[in-house]
Design goal:
The protein has a five-stranded mixed beta sheet with strand order 1-5-2-4-3, sandwiched between helices. The chain is an alpha+beta fold. Helix 7 runs antiparallel to helix 8 and helix 8 packs across helix 12. The protein has twelve helices and five strands.
Length: 293
């Protein structure tokens, strides 16, 4: 039953231009890395999975040393331990801890996958930094200014507001334990694809060469400090934060230090990082649709 549901969802994704763009981007951008693989697999690979495969995977991966647990709410430590023991107590103590390699050879340039659509979807990216790097928040704030800040970002203001080439455009920092990337995307009319790509490259060059202003930095700091409280609105979101802090080894005092980490970022520091990290020559664009090239 579950296999049929997954196969049906794969078929739906294969006809959706945005889903295809994401899948093709991963395939080309990450190349031989594991991240190039489709999360749901293919119809053929799903059909090959047996009950024996699932049992073996569960035995090797669902183990105590692979579990990270965050708990929040009106509950005592004694009760938490009891419930955790009830749910996870019978799991094996040790399993396979698979370590992913860094992104050593990310693709650059452009690739086109044709689909008959009135608008073309473009997903783009370049190398980023890992979540455990010291300059993680510096990079995150830099990306907020470039493309992660919604209506306030440079990409949105220049490409959407001033020129009307897209309805929306964005970028975000996608960071993992071992490495990270900067990813973005937009949709535009088929005849505007190359103009929009050149605009993205132009904004990449501009911020890399000239950096950001003190006002942009201060506004981004204010946003990141103020918006964090939205993660504290429920016990579920707080528990999730506690899990993240443990998974990335951010330290028991992370919530105390977070505002100071942001406040201590200087204009020189962020512009140095931008000049070394943001590079238009390392951009890759996955173009899906009927672009007029």
């Amino acid at each position: 039953k579950v296999k049929k549901q997954i196969v049906s969802s794969i078929k739906i994704e294969n006809s959706d231009v945005s889903s295809v763009a994401d899948i093709k981007f991963d395939e080309f951008f990450f190349g031989s890395h594991d991240f190039s693989r489709r999360i749901k697999g293919s119809i053929e690979s799903i059909e090959r999975i047996s009950r024996k495969d699932l049992v073996a995977y569960h035995k090797n991966v669902f183990t105590k040393d692979n579990i990270v647990i965050g708990v929040a709410g009106n509950i005592s430590e004694k009760e938490v331990k009891q419930y955790i023991s009830m749910v996870f107590g019978n799991l094996p103590s040790v399993g396979n801890q698979r370590k992913l390699s860094t992104f050593n050879s990310l693709k650059m340039g452009e690739e086109v996958f044709e689909m008959d659509t009135p608008q073309t979807t473009v997903v783009f990216g370049q190398p980023g930094i890992s979540r455990t790097e010291k300059n993680y928040f510096v990079a995150r704030i830099a990306n907020y200014i470039l493309g992660g800040g919604g209506f306030q970002s440079r990409l949105y203001k220049e490409i959407r507001e001033k020129r009307g080439l897209v309805y929306s455009i964005y970028s975000y920092l996608d960071s993992y334990k071992m490495d990270g990337v900067i990813v973005g995307g937009f949709q535009t009319r088929n005849h505007s694809v190359m103009d929009t790509i050149e605009m993205v490259k132009g904004e990449w060059s501009k911020i890399s060469s000239s950096g950001v202003t003190s006002r942009e930095l201060q506004d981004a700091k204010t946003y990141y400090k103020g918006s964090f409280s939205r993660n504290l609105t429920s016990s579920l979101s707080i528990a999730n934060l506690l899990k993240i802090v443990q998974y990335y080894n951010l330290g028991n005092d992370y919530f105390v230090r977070r505002d100071k980490i942001i406040d201590d970022i200087t204009l020189e520091q962020i512009n140095n990082l931008i000049s070394n990290l943001i590079d238009r020559d390392k951009l890759f664009f996955m173009i899906v649709g009927k672009p007029e090239l």
